[in-house]
Amino acid sequence: MHKMQDFIVKDNEIFIGLEDSKTTWKVAVRSEKMLVHQTIMPMDRQNLLKYLRNNYPGCRISLIYEAGFHGFWLHDFLKKEGITCIVVPPHTVTEEKTSRIKTDRRDARRLAQNLENGDYKSCFVPDAERREDRQISRTLEDVQNNIVRTRNQIWKMFDFHGIEVPLGHRVPSKNDIRKLSELSVPEMIAASFKTYLGHLEYLWGQQLQLRAQLRAMTKKERYKRTFEIIHSVPGFGWFTAIRLVLEWGEDLSRFCQ
């Protein structure tokens, strides 16, 4: 089977399923309702392009892969090289699985067959600029989660050592937390609290910077109109509005189809 690609003729349609892992790509190739080749290669875009050009010259190539931790950069690269690339949501291709055994090679074959049959639903792929801008919003979310985590670590430490914290609520302000340094506690507890507080001070500073960058994006020409529409809805502040624009995109009409 591994030599069947030698019989692929110019102008044939080639359907490729690609399953990725952290370091390799599993590739399955179909043409004329047959599996003509399978291979494993290092996760290198130029190596993949060389494989396609050398083995299927003059053919109309389409490739499909599932969206995942590697994002959409492969889609952008292949599109720039004139190769049709389809990205689908994970685990949405509709071929019935006849085995519970999951392997990347099996998934690559399944993807190639669904591509050839037209039996898939593709993802909306945001352009590179919006993906990069959206990263600010997602990084801010990570920072805020880290703030909550560090704050909870402080409470757990005090609870574990039976230290009463003079606060009437569990969501204190920054100043409330800073005032905890005035507590009379054992030396090592004070040292640990100082470490947590230093981490929080750093995170609060990062939070302010990221929010300022998000605020600036509300004025960016490509987002401005959609931001104003969402922001005009009662209950949607500027912070929520710009994050929705970055996640959904500027053209909201696709949600009305």
According to DSSP, the number of beta strands is 5
Instruction: Please report the number of helical segments.
Output: 8
Main sheet: strands, sense, barrel: 5 strands, mixed
Give me the CATH architecture of the largest domain, please. 2-Layer Sandwich
Overall tally of structural domains: 2
Structural class: alpha/beta
Strand content: 5-15%
User: What share of residues is helical?
Assistant: 40-55%
* Mean pLDDT value: 89
Specify the CATH class of the largest domain: Alpha Beta
CATH topology of the largest domain: Nucleotidyltransferase, domain 5
Distance between the termini: 43 Å
CATH superfamily of the largest domain, please?
Ribonuclease H-like superfamily/Ribonuclease H
Radius of gyration from the alpha-carbon trace, in angstroms: 26 Å
**Elements, N to C (H/E):** EEEHEHEHHHHHH
Output the strand order for the largest sheet: 3-2-1-4-5
General shape: elongated
- Uncertain segments are none
Task: Describe this protein with a few key phrases.
14% strand; 5 strands; 2 domains; 8 helices; 257 residues; Nucleotidyltransferase, domain 5; 5-stranded mixed beta sheet; 49% helix
Q: How does this structure look, described?
A:
The protein is α/β, with parallel strands linked by helices and 257 residues long. The protein folds into two domains: 4-117, Nucleotidyltransferase, domain 5 (2-Layer Sandwich); 139-211. 49% of the residues lie in helices and 14% in strands. It is built from eight helices and five strands. The protein has a five-stranded mixed beta sheet. β4, α2 (73-80) and β5 (84-88) form a beta-alpha-beta unit. It is elongated. It starts with 12 loop residues before the first strand and ends in a 9-residue tail after the last helix. The mean pLDDT is 89.
